[in-house]
Design goal:
The structure is a homodimer. By secondary structure, the first copy, chain A, is an alpha/beta fold. Chain A has helices spanning about 15-30, 50-65, 80-90, 110-115, 130-140, 185-200, 235-240, 265-275, 280-290, 290-320, 340-355, 380-390, and strands spanning about 40, 100-105, 125-130, 145-150, 170-175, 200-205, 230-235, 250, 255-260, 260, 325, 330-335, 355, 360, 370-375. Chain A contains 12 helices and 15 strands. In chain A, helix 3 (about 80-90) packs parallel to helix 9, helix 4 (about 110-115) runs parallel beside helix 5 and helix 10 packs parallel to helix 12.
Chain lengths: ~400, ~400
């Protein structure tokens, strides 16, 4: 063919992180067939869904087979029963939303990727290290991306201090993937004030909010005026174990405007054109998962993951190893010991303790020298891993 | 905010078609409260899903609640079990695909809308009348759209005859929404040859292929060399009643290249960045729906819809009213009687026969003077409608 392709795809680095990890583990296994390898690199939930959730999904599935209860095309923005439940979920967290602010998605990743459709050619500011989707989705559409450096000094919570006062699009993720670092109320106030003063938009990824236990904001809308500067994109994936079920939601308050253009109306139009809504049985499952009863059930799973981060944090505290996350997050972001680089420590850990984690440099160059451990293995495996790390470090 | 928004959104016409229809029906009802209104405007399936399909979905849902059978993130391109079933589905239709050519989606509309992401700034050629998503998704990304006129002379099956030989992106939908018109083998050969010679890409929407009964191609890949010029986007929505379940598939053969760039690789990258796969229970349901047994079950529903189109076609044949579709499609696209305009006939039909259809002009200006009737009402209602039309026309 002689048509033009999107040349911006050539600017996206191929991400070989996880295939590289798999190769190294495979090679190690082939020379050490009896090694009892523990995987603390998993970025996906592992515990089954609560019974009330799967029962609801099964029930709704069966209903699709009967004339009286069959449902055709869902509304593009989500069924009102689920949008109302999202409003209620936020209300329990003291945030008031309008039903029309809520868009049901097939997961946060889709909306984070697609949100660029409604935006013009803005400068994009993204913390580093970072979830790669923010960067790649912007590079694909030809935007210029600037990194805001995360480091030990700012506890991997970069602030707007050094930024100019021009309008920009800023991605924030709190609790952060991969660093687990979580903005405090006061820090988010500064970001919202900066956005307001500079005329910027914050795209706030709150996919890990359910892991927050220290009172830090779980939604950017807990900050005054945030509805004038922020879109919030969230997910049931980690909160309710929905990674395989696929459901999330995006909040675009009607207060969010550029001149007389409503961002909510733009996104509505985008959804109506390029999306046809989320599967009905999935929305029913999400409805139950977000109900007070469903949230209580999911908390049992979160408690199991939490026990893992506690064991790891306790060890690192004892050993005096610097880390972020763990407290409000399923991720622990540790400094590699003895000045080791990320991949050096990866190999060392695999060889000496048969533990697999994720090299921090895989999330951006500011991650070099750091390492991500996750809480999604079993309590037993994590306990064993902690014992091995205790001897090794 | 002072950020830039995507100004191209201003070029998209608001589509008031269905809200306008609803308003007119509501107004009529308020003055005629006892009218027995029959809706032949429905563009969505109405019959429940086969039992084997919903049972599988319920079973897979329950499995998500048990440790041994729980599934996390699905593969971005779909589970291999379902991709293999798509390959098998095509094989039954004498088309050979590679598993890697197949991408599982949450419905054809999403992929039709998102496919523009991987393309550069090409001229876009779209038949008119048309499914609005082709036009709007291109206008949103600032592309120049040219219409290829459908009319009675070409039986609403525009051909490439008058087109220049420059490379372009061409959207074809066969059987067509809204006209029901279906390209023959020879006609598609001409399109594929044109695309090959001009270096163009065809985006072929085959969402209605299961309605084909006269031997016309159900896939563009039945045409020699089509793998070098065409992407095919399809859906389980109409074929298997999945409008509320949300599953489709997109075929991008590895033969499809621009220079040394593989379109398949571009789309793979797009999916890996902006999509996280389709719900596991949905994919299990789709697997059963596409199996030979599932297809047989769905045919029972298709036969009920087909009976409706037959009743309508028989009447129009008897009355000598020009129409396209009906034979290979759930849609009948009729010429409005007595030179009436689309909305004029809408009001006439509502008032004189209490029948609601869809004014053809709502699908583009080439639809003016035409009218779409659909087969998704019940057999009883359609029979009643045919009796009323018999008296009226």
């Amino acid at each position: 063919m002689k048509i033009k392709i999107n040349e911006n795809f050539k600017n996206i680095k191929e991400n070989y992180l996880f295939s590289d990890i798999n190769k190294r583990v495979k090679a190690y296994k082939s020379t050490h067939p009896d090694a009892d390898i523990i995987r603390l690199g998993i970025g996906d939930v592992t515990l089954p869904l609560p019974k009330i959730v799967v029962d609801e999904m099964a029930k709704a599935s069966i209903e699709m087979g009967a004339k009286e209860t069959f449902k055709g095309y869902p509304p593009e923005y989500g069924y009102d029963f689920l949008r109302e439940m999202v409003v209620d979920y936020y209300k329990r967290n003291k945030v008031t939303l309008d039903l029309e602010d809520v868009f049901i998605s097939d997961g946060a990743k889709s909306d984070i990727g697609n949100i660029v459709d409604i935006l013009g050619d803005n400068d994009i500011y993204i913390p580093n290290p970072v979830y790669p989707v923010y960067v790649d989705s912007n590079l694909m559409s030809g935007r210029k991306v600037y990194y805001i450096e995360g480091n030990e000094k700012n506890k991997f919570l970069p602030m707007p201090d050094g930024l100019d006062c021009k309008p920009k699009v800023i991605y924030l993720c709190s609790p952060n993937n991969p660093t687990g670092a979580t903005y405090s109320y006061d820090e988010l106030v500064k970001w919202v004030e900066y956005a307001y003063e500079s005329g910027s938009l914050i795209i706030f990824d709150s996919a890990y909010e359910a892991f927050i236990t220290d009172g830090s904001p779980r939604s950017i809308y807990q900050i005054p005026m945030a509805k004038h500067v922020a879109i919030e994109i969230s997910s049931l994936s980690k909160m309710a174990g929905f990674t395989g079920i696929r459901c999330g939601f995006t909040i675009i308050p009607k207060e969010l405007t550029v001149g007389d253009t409503s961002i909510n109306a733009l996104w509505k139009r985008r959804c109506a054109t390029k999306f046809n809504g989320v599967s009905y049985p999935v929305q029913r499952a999400a409805y139950v998962a977000l109900s007070p009863e469903g949230v209580e059930e999911s908390k049992k799973n979160l408690a199991i993951y939490k026990k893992n981060t506690e064991m790891l944090c306790e060890l690192f505290d004892k050993k005096g190893i610097w880390y972020s996350g763990g407290k409000n997050s399923p991720y622990i972001w540790m400094r590699c010991p003895n000045g080791m680089k990320s991949f050096e420590f990866f190999d060392y850990l695999l060889d000496k303790a048969n533990i697999v984690g994720t090299p921090g440099v895989g999330f951006g160059e500011c991650g070099e020298g750091y390492f991500r451990l996750t809480s999604f293995a079993s309590n037993e495996d994590t306990k064993k891993a902690v014992e091995r790390l205790n001897k090794l470090l």
